[in-house]
Amino acid sequence: MLTLHCPYCGVDADETDLHAGGEAHLKRASTGSSDDAFEDYLFMRENPKGVHFERWRHAYGCGKWFLAARCTATLQVFGTYRAQTHEPPQDIKDAISAQRPGWSWGNFR
Ligand SMILES: [Zn+2]
């Protein structure tokens, strides 16, 4: 079972207490952007087998949204962090690099 640490209330929450919210760090298509850019924003997702950044909600806890970095193949969690960040904290990127040398995800590495 997947267990994620909620960065707001400090609880290690089981998967059944959480609600998945899809990919993290999406860049919203701006006003006046092309149809292709808007289509990419709405429908195109990374969906990797490996390192992934996701949105989760502590639905049966504090109710807040947070972000998690984990491996989709092994369920290894590299860390969780508050949702109001534009990119993963450096300590989480370092933890991923230590476990998965050469990884990249979108513009992150
Ligand atoms: Zn919480």
UniProtKB/TrEMBL annotation:
Pfam families linked to this entry: SoxD
InterPro entries, per database record: SoxD, SoxD_sf
Sample GO molecular function, one term: sarcosine oxidase activity
GO BP term (any one): tetrahydrofolate metabolic process
Record protein name field: Sarcosine oxidase subunit delta
Organism: Yoonia tamlensis
